[in-house]
Amino acid sequence: MIERPSPNHNERELPVSMIVLHYTGMESAEAALDRLTSPDAQVSAHYCIDEDGTTYRLVDERRRAWHAGKSYWRGVTDINSASVGIELVNPGHEFGYREFPDEQIAALLPLLADIKDRHGITRGNVVGHSDVAPARKEDPGELFPWWELAKRRLALPSPTKDLMDPFWTDAGFMLALERFGYDVTDPEKAVIAFQRRFRPDMIDGIVDGECRAKLLALLLPRPQ
């Protein structure tokens, strides 16, 4: 863990109840770190993990880092106060989006497990930036290996077994998606965010039987 302090933080107003994963979306790790630690940029995160697995601590977890912007998840509107933010170095969709290297994910997993355990964070509250800000954000994107987290019980898996289409109307799907946690103010962007997270092989913003079935499975109570 390399200390790279950012001045961009303030006091938390809420206890930590979620983890938000981002990609940096910049052309290099150094450019991203410079921005995350610049007082002029007014952005930060608690941690940043380079593609080779090098991990930087930018803001103490006891402080409110400025990583989520205007966002919402499960009734919480001050996501920055309620979350730990982790940036993953990746050029993102603007500069040549690519897969996240094994070394980077290998560094993320124990950090994520430690944060999750210390704060008692549920799997459903380990989310991507696009989950909490669907109208604005795409990160960490469809190439992020959520399944690696899910198989270690660090995030929710994408349901695949015994799926049943509840045949909701589109309006019914949006109500269910809102109940699950998403901001559905922009319905198409909310569907895209759900697909990017739980069905990344087809992101078209269209509600279909597979989307409905996966969302139903995520909402149904399951044995722990």
Shape: globular
Number of strands: 8
Q: Which bin fits the share of residues in helices?
A: 25-40%
Unreliable spans: none
- Given helix and strand content, the structural type is alpha/beta
List the defining traits of the structure above:
single chain; 8 strands; globular
Would you write up a description of this structure?
This protein is of the alpha/beta class. It has nine helices and eight strands. It has a six-stranded mixed sheet with strand order 1-5-4-7-3-8. Strands 2-6 form a two-stranded antiparallel sheet. The longest helix is centred in the middle third of the chain and has 18 residues. The radius of gyration is 17 Å and the shape is globular.
Short description:
The protein has nine helices and eight strands.
Which helices and strands appear, and what pairs or packs with what?
Elements: E1 2-3, E2 9-11, E3 18-23, H1 29-36, E4 47-49, E5 55-57, E6 63-65, H2 79-82, E7 83-88, H3 92-95, H4 102-119, E8 126-128, H5 129-132, H6 146-150, H7 170-180, H8 187-198, H9 209-219
